[in-house]
Amino acid sequence: MKPQTPSIPPSDASARKSIAPVICYPTDTLPRPDLESYRAVRSALSLVSTTHVPPRDAASFHVPQGHFFRIICPQGPQVGDLNLFNANDILERFYSGKTRALNGTHVGLGDQLFSNFPNMRPIATITHDTLDWYGFDEFGGSVHDVIGTRCDPYTHNLLSHGGQYHACCHSNLTRALADAAGTALHEAEPHVHDVLNVFMCTGFTRDTGQYFMKASPVRQGDYLEFFAEIDLLGVLSACPGGDCSSEHSSDAATCYPLLVEVYKPESLPKGWVPPQPNGYDRTHGR
Ligand SMILES: [Zn+2]
Hints:
Layout: H1 13-17, H2 35-40, E1 45-53, E2 58-63, E3 68-72, E4 80-86, E5 89-93, H3 96-103, E6 112-114, E7 122-129, E8 142-145, H4 153-159, H5 169-181, H6 185-188, E9 196-204, E10 211-214, E11 223-228, E12 232-238, E13 258-265
Antiparallel strand pairs: 1-13, 2-12, 3-11, 3-13, 4-5, 4-9, 4-12, 6-7, 7-11, 8-9, 9-10
Bound molecules: zinc ion.
The site of zinc ion has 9 residues, from loops.
């Protein structure tokens, strides 16, 4: 919350505040996926792998380029924190901030998840969302946000004045990535990045602009489905906050597992072209 400022408002303060906003990144020139062609191949999918994510823990999974994967709520309401990497180059990873700038605070059907610089390209496309009916609620909340970062033991330590908690999503993701990459924890940790908060219901309070969460509307059987634009290594944490209706960073909330299923389509979407690394020449004016 911002402190009350001692400044005296200028005489035209209300006029300045009433200026209508402008969308930072108009999407008219953003290349969009041909969603119809993606969805057309969903009718013939073969299950190729299943990954169970235990409560308050994380697990990794691979998705070959051109396959689909689903993050499923198999039991009770549960939020998942997702990291995505280029399976062939761990330095290319999901870029939550730019995905947010391009798509808005929450992602859904037809939105694409972008990778970091310098590749900055779509690495996954959302092809189905059983929670797409939710939209935005009266509090400004919605699901699948790219505004939160992930619960982590450092913020917990700060806010709890020294607390040590080891099942935050950040630690869960670190352990699972270390196992997947065959590295030590301290080598894996710097690669863990801001997540896509799958099924989490969040927003910013209208009066103070503070990040809020509320009970996820997800129920058993709901899922969020993606098309892998490149070979992906995914790491998913079942947040210790459970449905995130009360608190996280503790063992207080009821938690449930998550499930990841990877599917191979009989054919690739018509007209689909693998995303190339970003075309900027990287000379930066020199
Ligand atoms: Zn978490």
